[in-house]
Design a protein that fits this description.
Aminopeptidase; 14 helices; alpha+beta; 20 strands; about 35% helix; about 450 residues
Length: about 450
């Protein structure tokens, strides 16, 4: 079979694949600091070009370049797009790394370094799957496009304009998203969507300067004003009180609800890890899974005001600021929710509280009945020899809506990571076995997609 030859090639040249991944991990690319960004973009573009892709870097005005690659198939009119990101999180705290954060150290069956799992392992895995077809058969079964951005870890603030200006260039029949892997039982996990997110700052000012707290009977305290305003946003039952907040919330379909019963949730392990005796509302089972995937949220991320150093300081602060995020579900739109938030705050009597939007993404979701979902699920079951776990959506957020909602193609997220990968933390790693098996999975998806009907 053609895939047997492809998989044999992947195994035979696995050490070369690992070497290329190590090279990419060694190149810092911290978007939060602007560290190594352009050098990494050049390296990713070279990896694509060396395989045979036509490439270009698409500049983002005021941002980091998007690396684009395209390889046309002579055998198929279908196009599969891979979305990835070459930027990584900051490596701090550095003393907690067993090996250097950008060492690319290979130890005990794992590749260590910032970005090994999130997201450089998936970049290399997908490039190598394409390379295997070219080496064995001289062509790719479908046209392949890569969109690799450099700002995902800071919220993709400039990607929307790039996608809007390059809709024809990025057009595709299906998209493989950037993340995924296996669970603790070794079952592949497949995600069909992401929640949206709206990030907001609420700001309040009082006196023109900090005052002695003895003046509290006369001088307004902006910290209290924000606390009182926050109390109007959500009640003790976790219900969000903003008028019209739930108006457009789309309920999960019957097929999605059926899937929930097949999704494992390691409740006791999660509680132990987080030092909790119970989840909010003592929820558990299917109810907990439904809440995690389908409930919109309002979360306080941080509160900044006054003096928080050692000892006491009897100060009445001149200003206060709180950071919030709203996780949004299907059919909720950040712009509409922000407008309702502003109106609600003023209606509750807090004209002195200013709301500032600091970032947003829309929710997005591919129907579980889409033919491409079946293509990916069957390929994963064959490669991993076990039934995959399919998540109708994810509690996380990202710019998936730019591809699903704007370009209109189905988007499925699947990859080569594992549950102990420690993404965003010290000692981030990727197992070599997972990396190679994930490369085989990408090859299987490329192959199967070329034969699929309706996908």
């Amino acid at each position: 079979m053609r895939l047997d030859e492809i998989h044999s090639h992947i195994e035979r040249y696995s050490q070369n694949f690992i070497k290329d991944l190590v090279t990419l991990v060694k190149q810092p690319s911290v978007s939060a600091k602007g560290e190594g960004i352009h050098e990494c973009a050049e390296l990713v573009e070279k990896m694509l070009r060396d395989v045979g892709f036509s490439t270009q870097q698409i500049p983002e005005k005021g941002g980091n370049p998007v690396v684009y690659g395209e390889l046309e198939s002579s055998n198929s009119k279908k196009t599969l797009l891979f979305y990835n990101h070459y930027d990584v999180q900051p490596a701090e705290p550095l003393p907690e790394w067993q090996f250097g954060a950008f060492s690319g150290e290979v130890h005990d069956g794992k590749i260590y370094g910032r970005g090994a799992s999130d997201n450089k392992g998936n970049i290399v895995s997908r490039i190598k799957a394409v390379e295997a077809f070219l080496k064995i058969f001289g062509y790719v079964p479908v046209t392949v496009k890569f969109v690799v951005e450099g700002e995902e870890e800071i919220g993709s603030p400039h990607l929307a304009s790039v996608v809007r200006q390059n809709k024809d260039l990025f057009s595709n029949d299906a998209t493989i998203w950037e993340f995924g892997g296996t669970n603790h039982e070794g079952c592949p996990e497949i995600y069909l969507g992401l929640k949206g997110v709206l990030s907001v700052e609420l700001r309040c000012k009082g006196a023109s300067r900090d005052a002695h707290s003895a003046n509290a009977p006369l001088v307004p305290n902006p910290a209290w004003r924000l606390i009182w305003a926050l109390s109007k946003l959500k009640d003790e039952e976790e219900r969000i009180l903003i008028e019209g907040f739930y108006d457009n919330v789309e309920k999960p379909s019957a097929e999605e609800l059926q899937m929930l019963s097949c999704i494992p949730l390691e409740e006791e392990k999660i509680k132990k890890t987080l030092g909790l005796r119970e989840f909010l509302g003592n929820t558990s089972g299917t109810k907990a899974k439904k809440a995690l995937l389908y409930d919109p949220t309002c979360t306080i991320n941080g509160f900044l005001t006054g003096y928080t150093g050692p000892g006491s300081k009897t100060v009445l602060p001149k200003e206060a600021m709180v950071k919030l995020d709203f996780r949004l579900v299907a059919n909720q739109r950040p712009t509409e929710i922000f407008r309702k938030l502003v109106s609600h705050v003023k209606k509750c009597g807090f004209e002195d509280v200013q709301a500032v939007q600091s970032g947003s993404t829309e929710p997005s979701k591919t129907p579980v009945t889409d033919p491409f979902v079946e293509v990916v699920a069957k390929a994963a079951a064959r490669i991993y020899e076990t039934k995959p776990v399919i998540y109708p959506t994810s509690p996380a957020s990202g710019p998936m809506h730019l591809f699903r909602n704007w370009l209109g193609s189905p988007v499925v997220s699947v990859g080569c990571s594992h549950p102990e990968a420690k993404g965003h933390a010290p000692n981030e790693n990727l197992t070599i076995d997972g990396f190679i098996k994930g490369t085989k999975l990408m090859a299987a998806i490329l192959n199967d997609f070329s034969y699929s009907e309706g996908a």
